[in-house]
Specification:
single chain; 766 residues; alpha/beta; 7-stranded mixed beta sheet; 5-stranded parallel beta sheet; 28 helices; 39% helix
Length: 766
């Protein structure tokens, strides 16, 4: 056995990156072995390991690449040439994970994954038609560090680990919000086979998801672990490999000793494995066992990978200010690169001279790439920045929305020509949505509809009644009661090129899971430069005025959280025929442009049949022919019943406000003699400012009816559109909800705008 020299981690100093760098050089330079080892053939297995010499050498090179990218980032940060310094130092053992999995195993990575990426790049030269000369993990990483628009992952929008050919989906999560969609992807792999959908990856693929020990405590992580076990308990496949890279600390908060093993090693239906990520020789076999188990059993697997964290959380984290020198010395003594160097020298894979030459050559390679990346162009105009955020191809979307479902299948599903919805009498909103969903599931065999209670029960309001029977539980199914996981599933299905239609039972429940849309689903095209997409239509029942079953959670009138999500589209119909044509367009937008869409369904209007008087049936409409669709941003204007353009007063509203405003307009016409036009915006995000301005031009008075809250509601956006169009001088009033939560029973109508409020506001404009 060799006698390793004392690790030179005893140096004091402020810049621990320099010290870690010096530690490695001194360690190798001072190496003294008992005997000169015999050089090993590439195929020779290392003593005490299942890893051969070639594999070890390549893994070590990947570790060195990751380390020198970290060192380079810290040096060039002060020169304003690098804009991200959260490094992978201490986590280089995750290179084993990359080697033992396939490039077609979708990977959702922790931000300390430099070695994983360097190693996974080795998979690509074997692909047919791939130009291996263009595959360079160092240059790709340097471009990302430098925020260059040539960055192949995000186009300079963020430092992310991502690659389309490598199936690494870019993640901006610094916590654990990527775990639900990783599990969703794993479940989608099995679901696709059940619905006979062609996967973009092999059927025996697994999803890989890495995260830190501190992040394992996050609510999003816990919901993913619970849902994984819930799925496995029912003997459904969920081949996800959760990789907890345990370095014992989260920024500055230490994880209690043995917390990860104590918390996860005994969980039913979450199969636990441990591997030493600080030692390539010792850890390789255990990582291989976890990967093989996940792939073979199709069960959720938890790999507890021991790591450490050297050089601090990021380049701005000067640990010596808050950690003792003795503690830092102990951490740096566990540097996995020191152990890899010892293995290389002990086994004859490398000599001290060859190892130091490789170390310095890798340094030069990383710095050269960084200097080249600094010369590459940056994003320098707004149009470039937002280009992948919200793609919209109107002609293609219109054609897709107007493409009718197969006629023969419609006859079979609806039960004959006399039962086709367009042949039936006018009907209310809930029935029209139901018919439209039937049509969409016929039209898109890759579409899946799921959520709480949507299957046999048909939803709380029977909106999805009959879909389970018509399309089976493979395509219409109930989920566990967890909105975060419902939206995580949707992202997973989208990743596997399915077309998900998740239901969030109430708008108030969306807020529990908002980050799955805001931080994950809606951001993917932006941070992947359009390489990955999340096509989905999220159905959300909500808004106010529900009678007999109310309170805050069932009468949530605030869509502010939705309005704040870049790239999102929100449609809100007030009547059944609009709902059908809007849904067709939303699905086409998802299918063609890959964006996230929300269909906001006003609960109080589900069963509404009458408009002006009981029994008039004036709020029921004929089902539109299946080749009709609504253009994105297109509103509907209701002209005065007595004729004319309605320029005396323009009422702008949406959702529940439409029938209320129509009734109020009739009353105002009686009292004032005004000609009144009511405009239903229908599309709430983004607001069509040009349409609003066109409708308001020439109006003598304007009334905005917004059932949302006084602050940050749609009404504020409408006023902004009017003022920016130069119409701010037009007399205007806003009828809006109060800034409060919605109480129970009749008190709810005290905080929501009513018809009398609309009439009073109109009279006040005289």
């Amino acid at each position: 056995m060799s006698t390793q020299p004392p690790i030179a981690a005893r140096h004091k100093g402020f810049n621990r990156a320099e010290i870690v760098d010096r530690n490695f050089i001194e360690f190798v330079h001072n190496w003294r072995g008992d005997a000169v080892p015999t050089p090993r053939d590439d195929d020779a297995v290392l003593p005490g390991s299942s890893l051969d010499a070639r594999g070890f050498r390549e893994l070590f090179e990947s570790q060195l690449i990751s380390r020198h990218l970290d060192l380079m980032a810290r040096v060039l940060r002060v020169k304003n040439k690098v804009f991200y310094t959260i490094g992978s130092s201490g986590h280089e053992g995750n290179a084993m994970l990359a080697r033992l999995t396939r490039h077609t195993d979708p990977a959702f990575l922790h931000y300390r994954s430099g070695a994983f990426m360097a190693e996974r790049f080795r998979k690509l030269p074997k692909l047919p038609g791939t130009d291996s000369s263009k595959l360079d993990p160092v240059m790709d990483s340097a471009l990302s560090f430098a925020a260059s628009k040539d960055d192949p992952a995000s186009g300079g929008r963020h430092k992310v680990w991502g690659s389309k050919p490598l199936w690494v989906l870019p993640q901006t999560s610094t916590i654990a919000s990527h775990l639900p969609k990783a599990l969703g992807t794993a479940i989608a792999i099995g679901q696709a086979r059940r619905v006979k959908h062609a996967l973009p990856i092999p059927e025996d693929s697994i999803a890989i998801c890495s995260f830190g020990d501190a992040s394992s405590n996050h609510a999003a992580a816990q919901t993913a672990f619970n849902a994984a076990a819930w799925t496995a308990y029912q003997k459904l496949p969920a081949p996800v490999l959760f990789v907890c890279e345990d370095n014992g600390i989260g920024i500055s908060v230490k994880t209690p000793a043995d917390w990860i093993s104590a918390n996860y090693s005994g969980r039913r239906d979450l199969d636990y494995f441990y591997a030493d990520g600080l030692d390539l020789a010792a850890g390789y076999r255990d990582v291989a066992r976890a990967v093989e188990h996940c792939r073979r059993t199709r069960r959720p697997t938890f790999l507890h990978l021991r790591t450490t964290r050297v050089m601090g959380h990021a380049g701005t984290d000067f640990e010596i200010e808050w950690r003792s020198i003795e503690e830092l010395v102990a951490v740096e003594a566990c540097d996995p690169l020191l152990r890899s160097a010892a293995i290389a020298l002990e086994s004859g894979v490398s000599t001290p001279q060859s190892l130091l030459e490789l170390y310095e050559a890798t340094r030069r390679r990383c710095f050269a790439a960084a200097e080249e990346a600094d010369r590459r162009p940056k994003l320098d105009n707004l149009a470039e920045v937002i280009a992948p955020l919200a793609p919209y191809t109107p002609a293609a979307v219109a054609a897709e929305a107007a493409r009718a479902p197969d006629a023969a299948q419609r006859l079979a599903v609806f039960g004959g020509a006399d039962k086709l919805p367009e042949t039936l009498p006018p009907r209310h909103l809930a029935l029209q949505i139901n018919a439209a969903l039937h049509d969409l599931l016929i039209k898109y065999p890759e579409a899946l509809l799921f959520g709480e209670d949507v299957a046999q029960k048909g939803g709380v309001y029977t909106v999805t009644k009959g879909l389970f029977k018509a399309f089976s539980g493979k395509r219409v199914f109930n989920t566990l009661l967890d909105e975060t996981m419902i939206l995580g599933l949707a992202q997973g299905y989208a990743n596997m090129s399915l077309l998900p239609i998740p239901e969030i039972q109430y708008l108030a429940y969306f807020h529990n899971a908002c980050d799955q849309i805001r931080g994950e689903a809606a951001s993917l095209q932006f941070f992947s430069n359009g390489q990955y997409r999340n096509p989905m239509v999220v159905r959300i029942a909500g808004l106010g005025y529900q009678r007999g079953f109310g309170g805050h959670f069932h009468n949530d009138n605030s869509i502010t959280a939705l309005r704040d999500i870049p790239g999102l589209v929100v449609g809100c119909p007030s009547r059944g025929d609009d709902a059908a044509t809007m849904l067709r367009t939303l699905m086409a937008l998802a299918k063609v442009d890959g964006r996230v869409r929300v269909f906001l369904e006003p609960i109080a209007l589900y069963m509404t049949k009458d408009l002006y008087a009981p029994g008039d049936g004036a709020w029921q409409f004929a089902y539109p022919a299946p080749d009709q669709a609504m253009t994105l941003g297109e509103g509907r204007a209701y002209l005065p019943e007595s004729g004319g353009a309605g320029d005396d007063l323009l009422i702008i509203t949406s959702g529940n406000g439409v029938p209320m405003s129509l009734r109020a307009a009739r009353e105002l016409e009686k009292q004032c003699g005004w000609k009144i036009r009511v405009v239903d915006l229908r599309w709430l995000v983004p607001l069509n400012a040009a349409y609003i301005a066109a409708q308001a031009k020439g109006a003598k008075h304007i009334l905005i009816v917004d059932e949302g809250r006084h602050s940050a509601g749609v009404g504020e956006g409408i006023i902004t559109a009017l003022v920016e169009a130069g119409l701010g001088a037009t007399p205007l009033r806003r009828v809006v909800g109060a800034d409060t939560y919605t109480p129970l029973a009749g008190a709810a109508f005290l905080v929501l705008p009513g018809e009398d409020d609309i009439v009073a506001a109109g009279l006040g404009l005289q």
